Amino acid sequence: MLSRRFVWPLVGVSVLLLTPGSAPARPTGGVAPQPTNAVPIPDNMQKLTTPVCSVLPGETPQRFVPTAARTGTEIKAKFAVGAIGATIPVRATLTTEDGAVVPFQPIEFKVEGQIVGTADTNSKGEATIEYKVPNKFGPKPFVARFAGNSKCAGADDSSSIGTVRSSTTFDLDLNNYANVGSKTQITGRLTRITDGASISGREVEIYVQGKQVSTAVTSGSGYITADYTPTTGANKPLDVKVQFLGDVLYNPTAGTGSTPLYPPRESVYVKAGDVAGRYGDTVSASVIVIKGPSLLGPKYAGAPVRVLRERGANWAPPRYDAKQVGAGTTNTFGLAQVSFKITDKPMKYSLWAYADVPRERYDVVKGPSAYLTVLKAPVQLVVSGPTSVHISESASYTVKAKRVTDSQAIEDLRVCFGSSCQDTDSQGKATITFTVPSAGGTGSRVLSFTSTENDYHLAGAQNLTVQALPSTN
């Protein structure tokens, strides 16, 4: 802590200060004695100076100090300028009356009578706040004020903030394409560059192919939407410009863009025929594509088509989302045969056809739904094992279940011989063991193997003739 300095009055006393290692010099001829061996004070023994106007921690500020007893200060508010919506620095510099920098003191800023911020002066005596220029044109007077403290008197100064128009931009958005005779939508947004804020309530001019066709006023979020119907110019770009002429707050701007312009739109009619088949069957759906709204129009050759099945909300549960089952291309007669394998659970489904024709030229009209009827698949059982067995002996037989429609092995199918049942494995096989009873004696016997009907398959059956031989016991 710095100690206070007191100055004692010295009357009729001569004082000679000696530094360590020095000796008094003899006065000669009226020449002032000079120190012969001055020693500098080490850095760690030097006292730090108190910043101008600063009240140190622990130091009790004096109250009601007359202004005349305090150090006078001067503050200089600096002129600033910014565009509408921009955030700019506003500065003021604080010094003493004799020009010494006054650091680390709070400066209050008022713009048009309203406090907009407070900042401390830096080591150079400058205080800076960030100020956003409002949507109001013309100079804005501001005052920078230092309130003062027990050591320094207060000061204030005024200047102004000049405003300039903000630059703007218009982001134009057009449809991916347009057609002669059909409405196309022109949209866009007007914003200012300074902060990206929307500019509402401004009129813009809309030009197509270099001619003004309409005007629009930006919404509260800066957007405009306008419809335009081209009447000529197919197979050329549709050039669009939206122009804002500017006003007292904002500079002018324009957004430009173009989109392909195609001939008038046509309708394409597409429909699939009904299909029925068994689970695992490969079937074919007929699809027709015609130019025009009905079957009487010209056929569309070379059209890519897709066939989807679904079981939507119009069906009783269970319901299934649409799933593509096959695809093809129409021939010169506008017909396509779309083949696909039935892999859905046996029941009835809707069957829809879609034509993937150029959407910039055609509107696709779907015909009424066709139907896909899925039936259960027949099952073939193949039994292998001994064809002769002694009475009272055990024999094992392997039963393999295959689907008739695609010859695929059937897993988890219940296969039985009498009351003895097993489920088929991943290879469609089940092994059943039984003992030949003595009843019936020797001779031919017919063994009957069956499979149980389930959600996908019909019941199956297979007989095997074996010879019962006399018992060996």
Describe the structure.
- With 473 residues, this protein is mainly β.
- Among the domains are: 168-262, Immunoglobulin-like (Sandwich); 266-375, Immunoglobulins (Immunoglobulin-like, Sandwich), CATH 2.60.40; 379-469, Sandwich (Immunoglobulin-like).
- The protein is 0% helix and 49% strand.
- It has no helices and 33 strands.
- It has strands at 73-77, 80-83, 87-96, 106-111, 114-120, 126-132, 140-146, 155-164, 168-174, 178-179, 184-192, 203-208, 211-217, 223-228, 236-244, 253-262, 266-272, 275-278, 282-291, 304-311, 320-329, 335-341, 348-355, 362-366, 370-375, 379-384, 388-390, 394-403, 414-417, 420-423, 429-435, 443-451, 460-469.
- The strands form eight sheets. It has a five-stranded mixed β-sheet, with no helix packed on it. The chain has a five-stranded mixed β-sheet with strand order 10-16-15-12-13, with no helix packed on it. Strands 18-25-23-20-21 form a five-stranded mixed β-sheet, with no helix packed on it.
- The radius of gyration is 50 Å and the shape is elongated.
